[in-house]
Structure formats: C-alpha cells, structure tokens
Automatic annotation (TrEMBL), chain A:
Keywords: Membrane, Transmembrane, Transmembrane helix. Pfam families: Ost5. PANTHER family: TRANSMEMBRANE PROTEIN 258. It comes from Morus notabilis. InterPro entries: TMEM258/Ost5 (IPR007915). It is found in: Membrane. The lineage of its organism: Eukaryota, Viridiplantae, Streptophyta, Embryophyta, Tracheophyta. It is a multi-pass membrane protein. This is Dolichyl-diphosphooligosaccharide-protein glycosyltransferase subunit OST5.
Amino acid sequence: MVCNRKFSLGFLCKNIFLAPKPITSPVPEAWYPTLSVVMLAIGLVVTASFFIYEATSSTRNRSLTKELTTGAVASVFLANLLAVGRIGFVGLQLSMR
Amino acid sequence: MGMGSRLDLFLLTIAILSGTVLSDLILFKVDRRVDLTSQVVRVTSTLKVENDGTNSVSEVLLAFPDNQVKHLAYLTVTPNEGKGKSKHSANSFPVEVVHPKDMPPALTFYSVSLPKALGKGESSTFDVLAVFTHTLRPFPEKITQADIQLLVFQDSAYFLSPYAVRVQSLSVKLPDARIESYTKLENTKIHGSEIKYGPYENLPPFSYSPIVVHFESKQPFAVAQELVREIEISHWGNVQVTELYNLNHGGAEIKGEFSRLDYQARPHIRGASALRNLVARLPPRARSVYYRDEIGNISTSHLWGDSKKTELEIEPRYPMFGGWRTSFTIGYSLPLQDFLFQSEGKRFLNITFGCPINDVVIDTLIVKVVLPEGSSDISVSTPFPVKQSHETKLSHLDVAGRPVVVLEKNNVVPEHNQYFQVYYKFNSLALLREPLMLISGVFFLFVACIVYMHADLSISKSSASYLAKLQWDEVQGAVQQVQSIINRCLAIHDKLEVSLRDLSRTGDAQSCKAARKAADASLKELTKELKPLLGFLQSSQQAAQILPKVENLVAKEKDLQDRLLAKHSTVVDCYEKKYGGKEIENRVAQHQQKINALRQEVDDLLDFIDEI
C-alpha cells in the first residue's frame, strides 16, 4: 500500500489507484508578472492605434469593422490591466491600513 | 477547594456503596502518565484488558467524572503494539458516549468499540489519550510581577473505571521547577520533577483516591478566546489564509503595577511567566506572510522556512501578563497545488483545521472556507465532530457571491490540528467568467467611443458653418483618397525600378518587359480613379485652397511617371542591343536626374498636404 507521505490522510490510502491529482492554475504561475506586462504593453499599443485611427480618418473613409476589431483586440489585452491592477489596489489598501 | 473535597467525598461513598460488576472484563495492568508541562493536561493511560468471563466482549467502557468531562477537549483510543507504537496511526478505535443503566451518577461513560471482539481469556492492550483544558488552576489566583506562578492539579491516584484493576500505577510529570506540595499516599516516590504513585494492586471498580499537586510553572497560558480562520481559494493560483486572534493570558492574574524597567532589566525574575512570543508553524512555501493588528503592521516578527515548514515567530506589542489580552491578524498565502486536488469528478481542499501556533488553547474556533463562485455540491469531511453552517461572501468580480462553509468547534487543543477535506464541484469553464466580464467592460468603453464619433450632435442642421464643415469633411476625404492613389503609383514606380535592377543582375529582358506591361496597366487604372476625384475637388468651394497643390502634385506625378517609363524602355532597348554598362548609363543620365528631382518634389508635396 503506497500512501503518499506528504499528507497524513489515512482514508486516501484506500484509493491508491486514484491518487488525487493536484490542481494548478491554467496559466503557469511563474509567468504572471512577465505575461501581465507584455499583455499590457500590447494592449496599450492597440488602444493607441484605435484612437489614432479615430482621430485622423474623416467621416467618409471610416470603416466600422476595422474600428470594432481594433477595439475588441485592445480590450482583450487590456482586461488583464484591471485584473492585475485590482490585486495591486487591494495590496495597497492593506498596506496602508 | 471546598467544591473539590465535597466531590471527592461523594465519589468515595459511591465507590464504597456501589457493588455493580460490569461484564467480565478486568483491567490487568493500567499505566497512567499525566503530563503537566504545558497548559493542557494530557493523560495517557495504557490499559491491558483481559476477558475473564465466558462471553466475547467487543466494548470497553471508560468513565470520567462530569466536572472533568466539561473540560475534555480530545479523547482518542489507539492500539498499543508494544515498544514501537506509531504516533498518528489511522486505526484509532471509535469512541462514543453511552448511558448504561445502574451506574453511579455524576459520571460520563465512553464506549470504545474494539475491532476484534475479545474471546474468553484473551487480552488486548490499548492507549487512551485524554486532553483536558482549563484544569490547572492558578493558586494563588493573583500574583505580582515578581512572584512565581503556582498551579494546582487535582486527580485521583486510582484509575476510575467500572472494572476491577489488578495492577496500576500513576506518574505525574511536572515542569522543571519547584514543587510546592503534593499528596503523599502509600507508595509515593519522587524522581526529580516526576512523582510516581503506585503500584497499587487489586482495587475494586470505581475506586477513587484524590491527590492534589501544587507546583510552579513558568509556562504562559496562551488562551485564544476566539479564533476566526478564513481560507479563501482562488483557482488562479493561490489559497489565502487569514487568521484573526483574540488572545489572552489565562494563568495567574497580575496585581499591582507592571514595571517595564524591572521587566527589561531582569526578565526571568520579574515576569517569568509572561507571554513573550509565539511560534507558528506554517506549511512550506507560504508566501506574503503578514502580521498586523488594528493599529497597523507589527514588525517584531521573524520568518524563516525550509522545505518542510515555514516558521513564524511573533512577539505581541507588549509582554502579556496574567489577565491581559491582545488581538492580531496573521495572513499568508499558499500555492494552490499543495492543497487542492481532483478525484472522481470532484475537487477537494485538504488543509489543517486547527491553529498553526504551538501550544494555544482555543475556546471557540471558527473556520470559514470560501470557495470560488460557481461551486456546487459542497460537503465536508472532518476527523472529529464540528458544527457546520453556510453563508455567502461578496468579493471582487462577484455576481451572486461566493459560498462559504463555516465550521465551528469549542475547546480546541493542538491535537486537533489535523487535515480535513471540503469537497465541491466546479465547472472548469466557469474560470473564464471573470476575464470575460473584464473584457466586455473594456470593450463597452471602446464602443462608446465609436458611437460618440459617429453621432451627429449638432443642433442646427442648416446653419452655414455646419454645411461648411460637412463640405470640408468631404474635401478631406477626397484628398486622402488622392493621396492613397498617388502612394500606390509611387509603389508601382518602385517596382519598375526593382525590375530594372533585376535586369542588370540577371540580364533577363523578358521578365522586365512583363513587369513593364503590368505596371502600364495598373497605372492606367489609377489614372482613371483619379479623374472623378479631381473633378469633385474642382467643383467644390472649400477645396479652393488645396486644389492648386493637388493639381500640382498630380501633374508632377504624371511627369515622373512618363520619365520613368521612358528610362525603362531605353534601358530595355540597350540590353536587347547588347550595349555596355557605361553606354546605358550615359543615355539615361539626364532622365535619371530629372526623375530624382521630381521624386523629391512629389514627396514634399505629399507631406505638405498631409499636414493640412
């Protein structure tokens, strides 16, 4: 009977063939800081191009699809700003208390 | 003291009066070890049970007086395999409270179910560990800062049991300090800081002989009146544990003043039993550990870790004497893969139940496990009985709130720090809900921008300035289109140049001619496109300023085009006639000069128009 000595769960020894599989996050954790910076940079670049397009093209030349796609791509990359920024904001709150 | 002695007399009379013989078991040998070195009293009794009768017996009764049972925090019975007994063996016998008939009152009985029934003449040995809290009373109850803390312990020298006992002995282990007084019965010996009573032979059931031990203890009594542990799981990678403590010193209360000078000059004489620091053993790879209270961060702490554990040593803001209290929060986060597992379609969290600080007695322990939103089918499995309830918590990016399982237990000792599991079902796709919410939020902002740019917010649709603005927009559009056409023409010119260079490299005149043909065709098309735009610009009033520039640009571009085509045909001709490189250069020299100049001017004009 092979019991994993890492956790002292006697009852788990019965399901030796179904030794529990640890669950991790879908994105490897070590990448979190790098990934968030890269995605943020790309998101800002795409946002900038969106606004430049809005500002320079005149009414007749605008194409709605191009606007919408640029906006969608930018929001995908920018969403991580809010996610990561939220964690940072909470951390700031806690450290200030 | 009065209450205690009255109870003892009562029990003595019970012992004399009761003649009930309970089944046919006898306790052959009883070894009791009482450990008084810390604030909880640990009584380990090794019982050798023998079946003297004819029926096979599968139940053994243990008796405790009612006033002791009030403070009983943990009771476990494990088999004793002789010398090499395992510490946390999983095969402890099930114990439950029973109420047998014809028993003396003021006693509580626990029934231990043996896995294998004892036949006639068989015997078996097992260990009973009972942990009692709040049984050591400080006496005197109030001491000054310089006094030593003295405690009183009361128990019986004889093992209280419904069966007759052949041989029994009791050994009381005291902390390494002064022993003030102890009851001297027959067969009492003292070895250093251990008192041995016994062996006593052939005692009837329910025999009771009270003993009192009065001794000094330097142990601070850390008692947490309430501990709230909140364990929050996030599927994105970590388990966050927050523990809120309300701690007080449950030993002898301090009377008189507290002198900080005395305490710091001679801490072990003035303040021997003060609570100076607490050591917490956190799981390995704990990170972001913080220690703070309502004022803010407390910096008197040390953290060091290795692969088996992370140790956190904390000092409260002031040394705690008897009767004083403090409250603080400890928080840390743990990696998800050490604690969350998946088996049989359900996920479960496997984490310790009690408090990680050594040697703390908790009056009320509340463990809250916060599961991510979207968890369903929640069930809990604990190694000892707890009170369960449910609530919800609203947190970041929550729609309905996260389900919280609340487990409550009273009278918790360090032996309760065992693993427990919380099972739940979670759909993996539900992980995406949070990022999708964020993405749609940001996308809404962009759509708002687009709508704003497209919306026509002018109040009067027929005013002169509005119409002028409309016309200017159209002119701008036309000019931009002209620009793009000219850029395409320039691109074609570049392609022609490239083909010429290819020719000089490979000498292939045919491909050059083909390129020329293609260029001709596309240039014709572009000229056709240019015509209506130019016409519109000429007719529009707003374009009056820009029109000459645009016409200039178009003319120059045409010129450039003609010259380039001329140069191209000359070069191809020369190749066909197989002239040398020098000659070709001479012929195209003036064309080339003009071409360069024109190209420069076209570029300048384009830039100028851009800026308008």
